[in-house]
Amino acid sequence: MIMNQATGAAPEQAPDIHAMVVTAHPDDAEFGVAGTVAAWTRAGRRVVYVVCTNGDKGSSDRAMKPEVLARIREREQSAAAELLGVETVVFLRRPDQGLEDSAEFRQVMVRLIRTYRPEIIVTSDPYRRYLWHRDHRVVGQVVMDAVFPLARDHMAYPNLLTAGLEPHKVREVWYWAAEDLNHRVDITATFDLKLAALRCHQSQVTELNRPDLEQWLQDRCRANAESESFELAEAFHRVVMP
Predict the structure, then answer these.
(1) DSSP helix/strand/coil, 29
(2) How much is the pTM?
(3) CATH code (residue 190)
(4) Separation between Cα atoms, residue 50 and residue 108, nearest integer Å
(5) Residue 6 in domain
(6) Cα separation, 190 vs 167, whole angstroms
(7) Confidence of residue 128 (pLDDT cuts 50, 70, 90)
(8) In what order do the strands lie in the sheet with 19-23?
(9) Share of the chain residues as helix, strand and coil, in percent rounded to the nearest 5
């Protein structure tokens, strides 16, 4: 398994992959899409993670130092990704709670999309109302703007053309934690892997304060599968690009 750790620039252009999962924080993917990711990798499909912040503020422990927490969370994310069969993890290592919807961040995302050329991008829903982490809103919006129209159009960021990164059209964007759900994936066969991957994030599982993590997660996935023929699901708002 290749672990690519980047501070902004992507590696040289890679072969096309099936899905890119873009998260604000280490552990977001395991909550939102790990069961689906496990199903994809089991089927031989290639998945890459892009983790935008270092998660250095995700602790209620007054004795924890941000730089120590960032290293812990990167190790936890790497372990979870390896368990799920994720081929590559790109760590952008931006400050937790510090993401901005900027031209610079959009260009970083366009570079990654043109490098890995995914069919599907999965990320957090920027349109969730009221109570929602700002980093989640910013990441979701930057991803959509990067997908449409910036990664698609050759005149956007001409410096990327000079670098050999040709335009790419993403086929679909899936948002987790959406209020308007229109797509559910059966994860009954991969729930155990989702749970195991989530448990890799021990620093965050402790913060949840859920005595029975398995039951709590199972209840959430069962609710996502309501009215479906399968028992457990992850649910998304799926956007098919024109």
Answers:
(1) helix
(2) 0.94
(3) 3.40.50.10320
(4) 11
(5) no
(6) 34
(7) very high
(8) 88-94, 47-53, 19-23, 120-124, 172-176, 233-240, 183-186
(9) 40, 15, 45
Range of the domain at 55: 19-240
Strand blocks (E) in 165-229: 172-176, 183-186
CA 67 → CA 15, 94, 216, distances in Å? 34, 12, 30
Dmax over Cα atoms in the chain, in whole Å?
53
Tokens of 173: 């964007």
Q: Is residue 211 part of a domain?
A: yes
Q: For the chain, how many structural domains are there in total?
A: 1
CA distance linking residue 130 with residue 143, whole number of Å: 20
SS3 for 45? coil
Question: pLDDT tens across 143-160, in order?
Answer: 999 999 999 999 999 999
Spatial distance between the Cα atoms of 55 and 96, rounded to a whole number of angstroms? 5
12 found inside a domain = no
Q: What gap in Å lies between CA 144 and CA 120, rounded to an integer?
A: 12
DSSP, res 17: -
Burial (CB < 10 A; 0-12, 13-18, 19+), residue 229, is: exposed
Q: Is the peptide bond before 118 cis (omega within 30 degrees of 0)?
A: no
